[in-house]
Design brief:
The chain is 40% helix and 15% strand. With 288 residues, the protein is α+β, with helices and mostly antiparallel strands. Helix 1 packs antiparallel against helix 4. The termini are close together.
Length: 288
C-alpha cells in the first residue's frame, strides 16, 4: 500500500478490465454502436455522451461497470503520470473487444510497454528522491530544534518523545502484544491515521511495527501517554507509505496511549491486518 501501482500492474488491470468488460457486457459489445464508433460521429453514440459532458448517469449494470473500469484505469494512469494517447488507448480496447487484427505485433507492443515502463519508473524515482531529500531536510531541521524543547527526550537512535502522562502498569517486552490508542500526523499537521477517530484500540506485537514504535513502547508503562517524534530512518524511510499519504523520508508524529500488555480482548483481536494510514492497524515495521 505504500507504493504506487507499477506500470505492469496497471497494464494487467487494463487487460483484466477489458476481459471483464468482454464477459460482463458481451451484448453491448456486439451492437453496431460498440463495433464501429470510429466510423460514426460521437454525437450518434449514446456511450460517447458522457465524454462530451452530457448530463445523466449510465443506467444499466453493464454500462455502469464499463464506466467504472475505464475511470479506474484513468485514475491509476493519472496518479502515475503515465503519458498515453487516449484515442489510441480506446482504439486498443475496441480492437480487442471486436476481435480485429491489432495494429502492432506482439513484439512491437511488448517493446513499447517496456520502454514506457522504464521511462515512467525513472521519472517516479527521481520525483521520490527530490521529495525525499526535501522531507529529510525538514525532518532534520525540526528535530534539531525540537530536542531543545522542554520535556522532550532524545534517545541514542534519534527518537524523540514527550511523556504526556506516566503510566503505572507493566512495561512491554519486544515479544509482547500491546493494545494502544494512537493518532498519527505528518510534520504539516496532516492526520494520516487514528484509532481514536475509529473509536476502537488496536492490538499488535511490539516487534511487528516500525522501529520508532518498537523502541518507544518499551519505554512506556500501561496507562501512559507519550508523544513520539519518529525520524524517517525509524519510520518508513525513503519509500514512504500509505499510497502516497506518507511521503518518502517523512517525519512522523504520534500520540500514543498504552492501554494494555498481553493477549487482547476479543474486540481488539478482531482488528484487521491492514497497512498504516488505512484502517485499524498501527505502523507496520516491515517496509515491503
Amino acid at each position: 500500500m505504500k507504493k504506487l501501482f507499477s506500470i505492469s500492474a496497471l497494464l494487467l488491470l487494463a487487460a483484466g478490465s477489458a476481459a471483464f468488460t468482454q464477459q460482463a457486457a458481451q451484448q453491448p459489445a456486439q451492437q453496431p454502436a460498440a463495433q464501429q464508433p470510429a466510423q460514426q460521429p460521437a454525437t450518434q453514440q449514446p456511450a460517447q455522451q458522457p465524454a462530451q459532458g452530457a448530463p445523466g448517469k449510465p443506467e444499466s449494470v453493464e454500462d455502469r461497470a464499463s464506466y467504472a473500469i475505464g475511470l479506474n484505469i484513468g485514475r491509476n494512469m493519472k496518479a502515475q503520470e503515465v503519458p498515453v494517447n487516449v484515442e489510441l488507448l480506446v482504439k486498443g480496447l475496441r480492437d480487442a473487444l471486436a476481435g480485429t487484427n491489432p495494429a502492432l505485433t506482439d513484439e512491437e507492443m511488448q517493446a513499447a510497454v517496456t520502454s514506457l515502463q522504464q521511462s515512467v519508473m525513472a521519472k517516479q524515482q527521481e520525483k521520490m528522491k527530490v521529495e525525499g531529500d526535501k522531507n529529510q531536510k525538514a525532518a532534520d531541521e525540526f528535530l534539531a530544534k525540537n530536542k531543545a524543547k522542554e520535556g522532550v527526550k532524545t534517545t541514542a537512535s534519534g527518537l524523540q518523545y514527550e511523556v504526556l502522562k506516566e503510566g503505572t502498569g507493566a512495561t512491554p517486552k519486544p515479544t509482547d502484544k500491546v493494545t494502544v490508542h494512537y493518532t498519527g500526523t505528518l510534520l504539516d499537521g496532516t492526520k494520516f491515521d487514528s484509532s481514536v477517530d475509529r473509536g476502537e484500540p488496536v492490538t499488535f506485537g511490539v516487534n511487528q511495527v516500525i522501529a520508532g514504535w518498537t523502541e518507544a513502547l518499551q519505554l512506556m508503562k500501561v496507562g501512559g501517554k507519550y508523544k513520539l517524534y519518529v525520524p524517517p530512518a525509524l519510520g518508513y524511510g525513503p519509500q514512504g507509505a500509505g499510497n502516497g499519504e506518507i511521503g518518502p523520508n517523512s517525519l512522523l508524529i504520534f500520540d500514543v496511549e498504552l492501554i494494555g500488555v498481553g493477549d487482547p480482548q476479543p474486540a481488539a483481536e478482531q482488528q484487521g491486518q491492514t497497512q498504516p494510514g488505512q484502517t485499524q492497524q498501527p505502523p507496520q515495521g516491515e517496509q515491503q
